[in-house]
Amino acid sequence: MDLHQNLIGGEWTEGPDASDNINPSNTDDVVGRYTKADAAQTLKAIEAAKAASHAWARSNPSQRHAVLSAAAKEIFARKEELGDLLAREEGKTLAEGIGEAGRAGQIFDFFAGETMRLAGDTLPSIRPGVEIDITREPMGVVGIITPWNFPIAIPAWKIAPALCYGNTVVFKPADLVPGCAWAIADILKRAGLPDGVLNLVMGRGSVVGEAMLDSKDIDAISFTGSVATGKHVAAKCAEHMRKCQLEMGGKNPLIVLDDANLDIAVDCAVNGAYFSTGQRCTASSRLIVTEGIHDKFVAATIEKLKSLSIDDARKKGTHIGPVVDQKQLETDLKYIDIGKNEDNANLAWGGDILNRETPGFYLQPALFTETTNSMRINREEIFGPVATVLKAKDYDEALALANDTPFGLSSGICTTSLKYASDFKRNAEAGMVMVNLATAGVDPHVPFGGRKGSSYGPREQGRYAAEFYTTVKTAYTLP
User: Which one of 180, 281, 414, 460 is the catalytic residue?
Assistant: First the structure.
């Protein structure tokens, strides 16, 4: 089996170790063999990025446009192939994988255009004859650390703006999903990216990630992952007086009011809570339902869950694939046991390990009812196909429950009332609000991010990405 290597200074480079990339739908299937970097190799990647930084920062916008546009075109042309790779290594269904690959193409295409639209301001000074120019310049070397649950979209929405605005990149993907990361690096290299501008270092976070955090030559870090690791990243960045951008957890609410369209509400809940195996930071894991519709909603949701196929991610007709690996499966099962033993919580459906034709990490979606917001299953992020139902007497109580969380990423409501929809958009304590839509699912050209324990630093995606990937310079001139 060919060894997929790290990309350092424009050269494919073998690391001191390697590991197999295993298919969670079929643990007998090895997707590929991927090298692992150590700390020394990571430092070489940082050196290469620093050496390439000056020239890339001053490159012509048309050069950056050409590279990002070429990458977008290849991703679009290969989205079925890349989507299959994604489904095979992460466990997302094939349809979801192809959709995510297409989204990555959209992101590169958007930021190809942004290379030609970076604007500044010219303002008059209060001093006669003095001119003021306000411009944006690249940060320098950006470290990018990405999670396993969106192995092509999240790297795309970090790497594309970094390159667009003239930064060089050291990219560490999650250890579980090196395949999509390697494909992105390969595509960008062949798109004409100069040597050293993008460096791929695969390996353990405790080794590669720590070497990045300890380096004085990285000017900014963009991280997506757990809250605990995010806090560690923030502390290390503060130590170096380094800019950081953190996207972390979520315990997202979906309110269902008595006046909601039941079919729409159930679709929003099942899609948001369970698709992508619930492994989304935007998953609607807390379903807050008012008394009048509660019983009908629970019954209809269970019937919907019964109709879903949980199977091999690449198999036709599969709605939900496997959990990503054994460790995550054990975490999900631990929380299901916690829920069973918490106060009066009722496991209304699912939560069992499933056997399929191939050995994999298959878990039946779980739905808890009769829960309270103080329970651990309502306070802590599970990151699996597990959702809870909380009963509320009215909209005001539902809103209070929705906001009673240490997280604030995404929040949703199902209602036919313009009054309640408008009030919710104003008063939901979340970075993103959905009305009659699943909490999971965002467009590539608008800002992404949350509040409280979910996010820290400037928003990701869209034009708002410039806030993180650039620094502002104010220049005064007396002609």
Answer: 281
Give the span between the Cα atoms of 334 and 456, in whole angstroms: 29
Distance of alpha carbon 169 from alpha carbon 141, whole angstroms: 6
**Range(s) of the domain holding residue 326:** 253-435
* 114, 247, 381, 460: the active-site residue: 247
Cα 120 from Cα 117, distance rounded (Å): 10
For the chain, how many structural domains are there in total? 2
CB 141 within 8 A of CB 46: yes
Query: What distance lies between CA 354 and its chain's CA centroid?
Result: 27
Do 238 and 265 belong together in one domain?
no
What angle is formed at CA 464 by the lines to CA 468 and CA 96, rounded to 5 degrees? 100
Same domain, 273 and 127: no
Looking at residue 269, its pLDDT comes to 98
Q: How far apart are the first and last CA of the chain?
A: 65
74 is catalytic: no
List the single range of 115-124, 264-273, 386-395, 407-416 with lowest mean pLDDT.
115-124
Whether residue 235 is contained in a domain is answered as yes
d(CA 65, CA 351): 48
Catalytic residue flag (residue 342): no
